[in-house]
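I am writing to request your help with a piece of structural work I have in hand. A protein sequence and the structure tokens that stand for its backbone fold form the material at issue. Please examine both parts with care and let me know of anything in them that strikes you as inconsistent. The record follows directly beneath this note.
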Amino acid sequence: MAVELTPNAASHVSAMLRKRGQGIGLRLGTKKSGCTGFAYVVDYADQIEDDDIVFESEGVNVVVKQDDLNRLNGLQVDFVKTNILNQGFEFHNPNVKEMCGCGESFNV
């Protein structure tokens, strides 16, 4: 089981953690949302909970709740910047069976 960051994503997360001045990594999860079922949740990880799984990817800790792992196993997170106003994380999840038309939610 694994969740990984691309070098671009790891560089962005590292820079944001330095700017923030605290945090131990990136927290990834899911929540029920949208017309298809789930949406990604991205946040800073400030601590490790008992039900967290920690992956190290490109020198950055990626923290995932055990309950989310079946939806996120194999996930690759990239950070894409097309211009100064259009940048963000892209998720490449091999578990996704369908996505809603707007791309905001997915089902596994």
User: Anything to note?
Assistant: The chain has one domain: 4-107.
